Amino acid sequence: YCVDHSIRFFIVGKGSNCLFDDRGFDGCVMLNRIQFLERIHGGIYRVGSGYPLNKLGMQCSAEGFAGFEFACGIPGTIGGAVFMNAGAHGQ
């Protein structure tokens, strides 16, 4: 809709890494709430872009998967992490 009607837009996950100008934003700010976690098989998941990154980190850890523990301390979403190339503590 925004593209078809030439409306500026900005997509926000949890907004944990966003700053907005005091003058506001002349456009549409969309809040991403696409939150799902679907186990495909084994250790393969399909995850919504609005799913909390720290929640996925805890889920992986609870299921015995290693290497994603750093995500437990990041307060963003999967989509934001991919977009920003997120990491913590050098990972």
From TrEMBL:
It comes from Nymphaea colorata. This is FAD linked oxidase N-terminal domain-containing protein. GO terms for cellular component: cytosol. GO terms for molecular function: flavin adenine dinucleotide binding; UDP-N-acetylmuramate dehydrogenase activity. GO terms for biological process: cell wall organization. PANTHER family: UDP-N-ACETYLENOLPYRUVOYLGLUCOSAMINE REDUCTASE (PTHR21071). Residues 1-90 form the FAD linked oxidase N-terminal domain.
